[in-house]
Write a structure and sequence with these properties.
- By secondary structure, this protein is mainly beta.
- It has 7 helices and 36 strands.
- A hairpin with a 2-residue loop joins strand 9 and strand 10.
- It is elongated.
Length: 502
């Protein structure tokens, strides 16, 4: 295990530090350091958080800022000490275990804790952001020491008086209104910190308001924490994301990890879903979850493997005024879900999962040649219905290069329904695709369409569509416009909670 993780980390770390990711390495809107110290080398360094007059979030990241660009070393420790000198957390650059952490009490299908691979230290120019392995205790005093060479050319911090801070008391137990602010003005500095505050077995609605900013973190909501409402300050102002992907925490990364630690919980499709639950930027296995007025961004660059921005694997999940941004597999929903007034972009299967999922009044933007959806429902089970959506494209996407949906022979009864869709010319005339089988053996296939128009409102010529797809009648389309028809009687439009984020 230890050697496998060392090899994984050495493979992943350069990839995560490369390319366009540099621009998003620091949380936007972070508060400036409040105190400064001069180290022996003469390089001015400021620390955040610093000072014990005011308490900070228990889930605060640590940020030293240097007088010039800094680079991370290959060994050395950064230690967070309790007031009595004992170690509360250690970031050891030479230890592969440092590059793993527990998130959201995640447990495998066997009930064992699941450990996620992550970057504990991210450097952007003069500032480093250190993400501890866990939140600290509220209402306690801490100090930080740093070994020489942890940051190249930096002699370290040895004195317990150089970098001290105090954590705030935090919200009262049982609170159902929580706030998150990366700048330190809320109950928590991270979304995951607020999620973790909610008790296991929660039975009450808990609202988490997330202030403007970019929250660079993997978020996971386990099935023991239902009834959460996460509300941003607007999709253009609150961004939650991370460069998580299949190479970091998915099938490729988990292949040699024992099933007891790696198999996904609550698997809808037992074989395909063995490891792929861990690679999303924002993952939800809980029921009755709602996300509104926020962007979820998987920061993995194009071609960086499968990388869900949002993965919902519970019952009655709602996305309302949400932007979902990635490339391959951007939005994955399994179980009853409702998406409204939202935006999803990607290139390959960027809306996928099982069902039933009802998507309305939303935009699906293709960033490259590929497929909008892949729906893997059981025989006669509900799939995905898209009503009044706009299918748009990046300027580089050529005409006729994108399919509405595709499916392989393992799922011959796939259901994907597009009703009253406005689509650009990038949608191929054939519309749909089959892999490993053909229409002769696809009698249960439900690739349906009604009322498709171009972006100017003119009817689309569907005469060249796949032979085993079908144009619905007006009466059939009317039935499928109702969410409850697909969602086994659940109509999320009647739930007043849907509008609470507006």
């Amino acid at each position: 295990m230890r050697s496998m993780f060392r090899q994984l980390v050495s493979t992943i770390r350069p990839q995560l530090r490369a390319g366009p990711l540099v621009a998003v390495l620091l949380l936007l809107g972070a508060a400036p350091p409040t105190t400064a110290a001069t180290v022996a080398s003469g390089r001015a360094v400021s620390f955040a958080p610093a000072g014990t007059d005011a308490g900070v979030c228990a889930d605060t990241p640590l940020r030293p800022t240097f007088d010039s660009a800094v680079r991370l070393g290959k060994e050395g420790r950064l230690t967070v000490h309790r007031a009595d000198g004992s170690a509360a957390d250690v970031i050891d650059l030479a230890d592969p275990a440092t590059y793993q952490r527990l998130i959201g009490d995640a447990r495998s299908d066997y009930g064992e804790p699941h450990r996620w691979t992550y970057e504990p230290v991210v450097v952007d120019g003069r500032t480093a952001t250190v993400v501890p392995h866990h939140s600290l205790e509220p209402g306690q005093e801490y100090y930080v020491t740093v070994d020489p060479g942890f940051f190249l050319g930096f002699p370290g911090v040895g004195s317990p008086d150089a970098w001290r801070f105090r954590t705030a008391a935090g919200p009262r137990p049982g609170s159902t209104k929580l706030s998150v602010d990366a700048r330190g003005g809320g109950d928590f500095c991270t979304v995951q910190g607020a999620v973790d505050f909610v008790p296991q077995g929660n039975t009450r609605k808990v609202t988490v308001d997330v202030a403007p900013g970019t929250y660079r973190e993997i978020v996971y909501v386990g099935q023991g924490r239902p009834h959460l409402r996460v509300r941003g300050a607007g999709a253009g102002r609150t961004v939650i994301g991370y460069p998580n992907n299949n190479l970091l925490n998915g099938d490729s990364a988990m292949a040699d990890v024992p099933p007891e630690q790696s198999y996904c919980p609550r698997r809808v499709l037992p074989q395909p879903d063995r490891f792929n639950c861990w690679r999303a930027a924002f993952g939800v296995d809980a029921d009755d979850f709602r996300l509104s007025r926020a962007t979820v961004h998987n920061m993995t660059p194009e071609g960086g493997s499968q990388a869900e921005a949002f993965r919902g694997n519970g019952d009655r999940i709602v996305l309302d005024h949400v932007r979902v941004v990635s490339f391959q597999d951007s939005l994955r929903l399994q179980g009853r879900a409702f998406v409204t007034d939202s935006y999803v972009e990607g290139d390959v299967d960027f809306v996928w999962g099982t069902g039933g999922v009802f998507v309305q009044n939303s935009e699906l933007k293709a960033l490259d040649i590929g497929y909008i959806s892949q729906i893997r429902n059981d025989a006669d089970g509900p799939g995905n219905v898209f009503v009044n959506t706009r299918l748009t494209r990046a300027s580089s996407v050529p005409d006729g290069s994108v399919l509405l949906s595709r499916i392989d022979s393992r799922f011959p009864t796939s259901q994907a329904v597009f009703i009253d869709t406005a689509m650009d010319r990038h949608i191929a005339p054939v519309g749909w695709g089959l892999t490993g089988f053909d229409c002769a053996t696809a009698q249960g296939l439900r690739f349906w369409e009604y009322g498709s128009k171009d972006l100017a409102g003119a009817p689309v010529d569907t005469s060249a569509r796949l032979a085993c797809s079908r144009q619905l009648t007006a009466g059939e389309a009317g039935e499928w416009r109702e969410p409850a028809r697909l969602l086994d009687g659940w109509d999320p439009r009647t739930d007043s909670a849907r509008t609470e984020g507006k």
